[in-house]
Amino acid sequence: MPLNIIIIGCGLIGPRHAQSVLRHPSTRLLALIDPSPTAPTIAKTLNTLSFPSLSALLSTPNIPHPDAAIICTPNHTHVPIALSCLEANIHILLEKPISDSIPSTIPLLHASNSHPETKILIGHHRRFNPYITKTKEILTSGSLGTILAVSGMWTLFKPSSYFAAPSDWRKDKERGGVLGINFIHDVDLLQFLFGPVVRVFAEKTTGQREREDEGHTAEEGAAVTLRFESGVVGTFVVCDGTPAPWSFEVGTGENPLIPRVGGQDGEGYGGGFYRVLGTRGALSVPDLKRWSYDGGEKSWGERL
Q1: Which residue, among 250, 294, 285, has the nearest Cα to 134 in the 3D structure?
Q2: Tens digit of pLDDT for each residue in 214-249?
Q3: How much is the pLDDT for 269?
Q4: In this structure, how many other beta carbons lie within 10 angstroms of the beta carbon of residue 199?
Q5: pLDDT tens digits along 181-196
Q6: What pLDDT is stored for residue 61 in this prediction?
Q7: Mind listing the pLDDT tens digit for each residue in 99-140?
């Protein structure tokens, strides 16, 4: 029997999740949940049912009970929707971040402990990307020696349409911002690769959008320094207001809506986003090029 999956939220990412559910032989797209007036039309294109709320679906006769829900609504709505799913014994894949603040996540943590039979998974899928799994393999092999430092970037330009209604919550500093929406992916990957972060310092970039729209209060970027429990140190620049190619999306081609950029050979890898420095070698990601003095004298006067 296929698992009955519901998608809650039909914004930017919801339909992409729906397509994944439709493609998998072990899952069935039961319904799309969203109060938006456009939701029924989107549901029709996906050949599935549409409901304005989870309660509306659950109260409808002759509809199978959902096995799991994929929650991809605005950040500040994640926790109340997830709590409703837990109460209905529906397993959850929750888009990152868990919420828009640490205090607001606490009720969900407590509720999760009270429902151990119901699983919650946060959507940090990039750990399974082949470029990242290969990077992890190289780091684990010891071929770079002791890891000393990492430098990373996430730099793209988001158009004004990205912040337009009904997604204007993205420009609110209490709900949106590039750190919680995008940089959180890299925080997860960096901890996956190098272990827990124990100290952080950051400086914001100068906001540009607020000059044209006083309602745009969300941060647009930052320079971040990191100290990992392992002793590794890191630097990271994140910005969603610059026309630049250095990001996970451009480098890996994961998001079909964001074009890849060719490298010097014209064959991808123009979106390099991590540089890893070790005592025996260095690694660039995603081209996975290793630099070292293997077989020769270890000196800056020698060719790498």
Answers
A1: 285
A2: 999 999 999 999 999 999 999 999 999 999 999 999
A3: 60
A4: 10
A5: 999 999 999 999 999 9
A6: 96
A7: 989 999 999 999 999 999 999 999 999 999 999 999 999 999
CATH code of 144's domain:
3.30.360.10
pLDDT higher than 50, residue 266: no
**Domain boundary at 123, 139, 171, which?**
123
Give me the DSSP letters along 39-77.
HHHHHHHTT-EEESSHHHHHTSTT-PPPSEEEE-S-GGG
Domain span at residue 212?
127-291
Of 262, 220, 225, whose CA–CA distance to 245 is shortest?
262
pLDDT beyond 60 at 268: no
pLDDT tens for residues 45-56?
999 999 999 999
Q: Which residues pair with 71 in a beta bridge?
A: 8, 94
CA distances from 71 to 8, 162, 196 (A): 5, 19, 26
Q: How far apart are CA 134 and CA 185, in angstroms?
A: 17
Would residue 299 count as lying in a domain?
Answer: no
Q: Are residues 93 and 47 in the same domain?
A: yes
CA 212 to chain centre: 28
Are residues 135 and 101 part of one domain? no
Question: Which among 123, 146, 176 is the end of a domain?
Answer: 123
Number of domains within the chain: 2
Could you tell me if residue 46 is inside a domain? yes
Do 82 and 167 reside in the same domain of the chain? no
Rounded alpha-carbon distances, angstroms, from residue 197 to 97, 124, 228: 17, 17, 4
- Looking at the domain assignment, is residue 87 inside a domain? yes
